[in-house]
Amino acid sequence: MEDIGIETVVLGVRARDDDRAETLVDAVEDIRTSNDLTVIVAYIFDKDSHNETIKQVVGADSEHVDPDELASRMSVVRTITDLLEAASIDVETRAAPGTSGDGLVDIAEDVDADRVIIGGRRRSPTGKALFGSAVQTVMFNAPCPVTFVRDQE
């Protein structure tokens, strides 16, 4: 049986992932099977945070901003991109407005991802039921295996 390597990874990040940037990059390096790995750093905006971020990062006068360009300006994306490039890993940045779980699944399908990596915090079952879970959405709907990187508390 031929060993099929991982070529494309979607790494889902949000603003609150600053503290786990190195851990997320370590997770990428742990599954790396060749030097031909490309990581799509996917920053998912919901509609409110997307519009607010445009005002903060670009300015209130900007009506049309490319979501991928906006995502590449986010500090967590810059940090993770720098760490991946330092490890000689090819990096692309993607963004999509919408719910984070559905947005990550869409990107994973679009790039034919071999793996999705997403971070998160531990939540009670009640918290998941009341507020939903982007991680659950990704785990149940992604077209490939998903690695969950939990906060180290």
List the helices and strands and how they pair.
Layout: E1 8-13, H1 21-31, E2 38-45, H2 47-58, H3 67-72, H4 75-86, E3 90-97, H5 100-110, E4 115-120, H6 125-131, H7 134-141, E5 146-150
Parallel strand pairs: 1-2, 1-4, 2-3, 4-5
Helix pairs in contact: 1-4, 5-7
InterPro entries: Rossmann-like_a/b/a_fold, Universal_stress_UspA, UspA
Keywords: Plasmid
Protein name: Universal stress protein
Summarize it.
Belongs to the universal stress protein A family. With 153 residues, this protein is α/β, with parallel strands linked by helices. It is 44% helix and 22% strand.
Explain this structure.
The chain is α/β, with parallel strands linked by helices and 153 residues long. It has one domain (8-150): HUPs (Rossmann fold). It is 44% helix and 22% strand. It is built from seven helices and five strands, in the order E-H-E-H-H-H-E-H-E-H-H-E. The chain has helices spanning 21-31, 47-58, 67-72, 75-86, 100-110, 125-131, 134-141; strands at residues 8-13, 38-45, 90-97, 115-120, 146-150. Strands 3-2-1-4-5 form a five-stranded parallel beta sheet, with helices on both faces. Helix 1 (21-31) runs parallel beside helix 4 (75-86) and helix 5 (100-110) packs parallel to helix 7 (134-141). The chain is globular and about 45 Å long. It starts with 7 loop residues before the first strand and ends with a strand. The mean pLDDT is 82.
